Amino acid sequence: MNILIVLAHPRPGSFNHAIADKVRQTLTESGHRVTLRDLCAEGFDPEFTAAELERGNVAPPQVREHADLVLAADGIVVIHPNWWAMPPATLKGWLDRVLRPGEAYRFGTNDKGEGVIIGQLKARAALVFTTSNTPREAELTLYGDPLDNLWKTCIWGFCGIPRVERRNFEPVIASTPEIRAGWLDDVASLTRTVFGE
After folding, report:
1. Which terminal Cβ of the chain has fewer Cβ within 10 Å, N or C?
2. Tens of pLDDT, residues 162-173
3. How far apart (Å, rounded) are the C-alpha atoms in residues 181 and 47?
């Protein structure tokens, strides 16, 4: 399979980077073709311009390159921290600019003439790894885990990916090296489960 990994964390050496390395290693060992794009390291421009809102616009080269990677992917992995119950701005801008209407999704009508969204990505599975400092119980009780719905329904479900799995690691701030090592074992296991060996 052709798997795209998208990483969005500004600090080299972060646990998010360790997750990305483990995913890449696991996928490569399983025989997949892997492309890793570190949005912060490459300086991806998240600014969605007025020109990009126009129908038939031609994507800027950086956006076109990323859009083509998404369109070619059989599977997608996204890794990011939970900041204010959202992805970092760089990743949000990547979504705005790269998941282009008419390519990642389109609007149509059903048999009743009602408007529907038609997902167009060929990827059959997506895997999302997130990190946070909020304990799990508080995340669920106080906030309802908004990232789960965002990725499973509002983004990858919207774009037609039928299988979306997400795993959050928390609280990172209180984790020990031993805990993080166990989490990375979980990363490898879930990666193999979703994409096969």
Report:
1. C
2. 999 999 999 999
3. 36
